[in-house]
Known about the structure:
Blueprint: H1 5-26, H2 29-50, H3 56-78, H4 84-87, H5 110-117, H6 124-135, H7 140-146, H8 151-167, H9 179-199, H10 210-226, H11 231-244, H12 270-286, H13 291-304, H14 313-326, H15 330-344, H16 346-353, H17 366-378, H18 382-395, H19 399-414
Amino acid sequence: MSAPDDHVDLLRALAPQVLGILVRRHGRFDACEDAVQDALLAAAVQWPAEGVPESPRGWLVTVASRRLIDHLRGEQARRRREDTAAARVPADEALAPAPDDEQPPEHDDTLTLLILCCHPALSPASQLALTLRAVGGLTTAQIASAFLVPEATMAQRISRAKQSIRAAGGGFEMPPEPERGERLRVVLHVLYLIFNEGYIASSGPDLQRGELTREAIRLTRAVRALLPDDGEVAGLLALMLLTDARRAARIRADGTLIALADQDRSLWNRAYIEEGTTLITGALAHATHGPYQLQAAIAAVHDEAPSAQDTDWPQILALYELLARVAPNPMVTLNHAVAVAMVHGPRAGLELLATLDADERIADHHRLDAVRAHLLEMAGDHAAAGAGYRAAARRTTSLPEQRYLEARAARLDSGAPPAP
């Protein structure tokens, strides 16, 4: 969108409200979502020039409703049928709502939309793309740019996702328990993936994509407002804030990656750290400990340390041991091995890392090579460490990570100490 930042924030906040209104009135999530996108684009063009209307949500509902009705009429004409769908819509529904209808909706549809966009019939990539467009209000072009794919490819992905939901009979309603809890777990995972892709871009020339991290935090805040007593929602938001707090210190002016131990901690976002720490402290005190809460607690220990040397590694190790029991997976083991190395020495960490060599989920991942190289460097085996860094560099598709890993290998080859 080309609108100013304040207009963009307003449009993204209104997007799920407007979509919820249209789907409740007309059904057809796929067609309603297209109509809302058209209305958002129209607002992005008109509002900067003409000003924000007195009732911005009503304006968007009116424009989107008209686009939807035009679409339905055109669809029916192509099929040579009577214009029955448009006839079922009372004329006053295509007009701006009455002033008292402009109050906030009795039920916020954000969570319902997120659950629909994360339908189990969709692949994770499709869930992510549809969430950003339907709930986040991002355009297809913006989503395609964020994930470094052609716009046409992303448009097809989103279109197929909506068709899959329709074919699977996905309804615009909250699922019953216990399905609701499982669907919420998927929603949180998708938001986590969006944040991760923004914080550590999986490919391309840039290490970070701030558009995605900001949107993930915004959407998680929205879920937190709807589910204030859910410990894992609080944990995920805390994890995002405590991690994103380090963003300004992660890259040098030339785009070079800076490891956590070498970062200038005065650049960290103290407001995010304070908010995240408060969130996770409250969640751990009142809720069953889930994986996002434990990851947030680990991030808080890192963020609260005044220097890398002051990091409370025994506490981090204890948290990873608990996390490995609650939610075992290869990435947890990978980070657990680092904590073991920091407390019990690099050889102990390498022993734990060796358990991943036969795990096909991570055996070919560049992070396994990189962590092994780091522990070998700690152990003084610089030749093996250099080979590990070069292997990791060959496997990563992120150019900043590739340059960082190659630089680590080159310094070991030259006998120079690691750069600060």
